[in-house]
Amino acid sequence: MPLDYFAPGVYVEEVDRGSRPIEGISMSVGGFIGFTEDVRGDAELFKPMLITNWGQYLEYFAKEGSDGFTDFNAYLPFAVQGWFLNGGGRCWVTSIGTQLPGAEPPPAEQSGTKILTSSRQPSLRFGIKPAESEEGGALALPSANEPRLKVVIEESTPKPLPEDAPEDAELPLNTGEFFTVVVKRGDETLERYPHLSMNQQVDTQVADYVVTALQDSQFVTIADIAQSGQPLSRRPMPGSYEIAPPPYISSPDHFPRDLQGQRDDRTGTQGIFEVDEVAMIACPDLMRVYQEGLMDIDQVHGVMEMMLSMCENSFPGPAYRMAVLDAPPVKPTKALSPVAPEQQKPQDVAAWLKQFNRRSMFGALYYPWIKVANPRNGGRPIFVPPSGHMMGIWCRTDESRGVFKAPANETPRGVIGLAYDTNMREQELLNPMGINCIRNFANYNRGYKVWGARTLVEPDNVQWRYISVRRLLSYIEKSIEIGTQWVVFEPNDQILWARVKRTVNNFLERLWREGALFGASPSESFYVKCDAEINTHETIMLGRLYVEVGVCPVRPAEFVIFRISQWAPNQ
Description:
This protein is an alpha/beta fold. 24% of the residues lie in helices and 19% in strands. It has helices spanning 54-61, 76-85, 210-214, 255-260, 268-272, 285-291, 297-312, 346-356, 387-400, 424-430, 467-483, 494-514, 522-525, 537-541; strands at 30-34, 49-51, 91-95, 113-116, 122-128, 131-132, 139-140, 149-155, 179-185, 188-197, 208-209, 220-224, 239-242, 280-282, 322-326, 363-367, 370-374, 380-384, 417-418, 435-440, 448-451, 526-529, 548-551. An eight-stranded mixed β-sheet has the order 2-3-1-14-15-16-20-21, sandwiched between helices.
């Protein structure tokens, strides 16, 4: 605004008098940590990658043309697929490896990239050739930050006649067996080998045997895996093929550090907490390494404790993330590995939770494990932890009803069975402990239902008992924090107090109209206080502005009680 006016005239000025609306944040972004089949494209090992659909997951964490699952039944692909099946949207995925820690490297005949013939028979297998390191002698694979090597198969012709050939010499007959191999990294052509054949006895004046021609390649290794037949029938099918590098296999001793990661480097479990929009987190393959005996129960508890602690600590902003935990299978005293999850009884889960002895309003636990189809086993079922499917239901409920609706009494999609059919009496043991059951209501023709909506808070802390209440308050706190950033450095006076109060009032009234707050009117549902009583001269001198907000969230009707009696009307 100009300080003075010097010439007569009409002056138009813009004055910001209204309140700025607060836009609610998304609480429906998931985070997953676990094993994947591959790590390629822009994805990096141990670092979170944004995924928006199952096809994108296959693009970054599956081999070309693969279904995305692993031969060692990693639980992460099932969790991510269950997330999308149940209504999940954006999520961040962190791969902690493509093989179990300490696993044997795959044999040469199973590593690399196989190229088939036009009749879908094996033809060639390409692998990455280790490069000599600068120190000499040691072998080092190409950097993971570089684009992956690709082999391009193109059709070719026989070699042309040499320059000194007689004029009447006949051109070699093109039988159609000839092809060219081009080695590329990104768009850069590294090597080119034309006029190749699958015939080991081919005349070198006509063509070169492919294995002989590429044996001195600086970048790839090659093996002839073709079956018997004519060179034409054994010729590799034209196309572009990405060469998969050897899998990263962590040592069992180093794996806990890989899983934990570093916040500064944004790696591992800690790294995914550096993604601001992630609001729910699961690590389903924590159960996989426990089943394989690679981590004992105390180590599993350590990872769970870290996840809960990091959800609770979001300084300087409010805590808004929740960790969805999975109950580990029972481990008998005389066995090296846990028993099958279908043998896990309700009393076993209750005993384990007492042993874990960690309570938090930012954690949730579901029981039992669920049965889903396993594409790697002909679609036969496999039991997997339910965390990914449950997080998808959270997202679905947020979309259809709102974050204030308890994510329960919902049908989990992609589930064909449960590891254990919990009855009502058994749930009476688990529900007060904060263990949410997935129930089979076949007797009522209702199918499978999520029949619990509690956090892992202390049982006597009824204020934060329900998942929907915890997430609604987190939604309100985080939305107000982000939506009032404009207040910083504004003049701290009554005008600002009124604007802030109006801004927050409008946001909470909108929530009340959507049904998120309890009360017949806005005044019964919430209050916003920002006046001289809480903003004294001393606080203003310290540069502080205090706003007091109270809300009355709706709570789920967990116990529906009809009181029925006989009634005789007056005669």
